[in-house]
Amino acid sequence: MTPEQDKPMTGQESLDLIQSMINSAKESTVNKGDGFLVWGWMLFICAVSSAVLIYTDYASPFLPWNIFMLVCVIMLIYGIVKPRKIPRVRTYMGDLFRNFATGFYICVFIVVFAMNFNTVSTSIAFAFLLMLYGLMMYVMGVSMKQRAMIAGAVITWLCCIASLLMAKLIFVMSFTALAVLAGYLIPGYILRTEWKKQQQSEKVR
Known about the structure:
Layout: H1 3-6, H2 11-29, H3 34-55, H4 63-81, H5 92-116, H6 122-144, H7 147-165, H8 169-204
């Protein structure tokens, strides 16, 4: 070991190192709300479109959802084959979110699988999906200390119960649209606003 490597860090160097680690952790966990807005608008459009198609007695009222599933498959394939960026900082919270998301999407796949093979009715399947999305929003809201997400989770669960009680498909699609609005779009725009304020405050510094 060279004398330079063996030299202890000064107080200022230690503070600089700690600050750089904090900044890297912030960059890895910062959420601009893009994911919530992209997925939220797709889900919202699907739910509203299906409600309109059901109301007009269209032959294929779930066509928007079929298109949505195709888009999901394409995005999944793209996510698998695209070059992966090595994260600068791996955090316990980040790993926890990724593992939770994996389990969440497995549960969603099981519900969709059951719906497509007529194991459960479409109305019940969408109610179960709302239950799962409410759980995801609650976990993320508590972890990120976002009251809007927690409120969105509660509204999503209420929409789940309403879908079970009023199982008519047009009502289920309407409740789904309301749940997406409360659980995805509103929190997404709040996150976007907070991120912009953070960017502006950092520029001022």
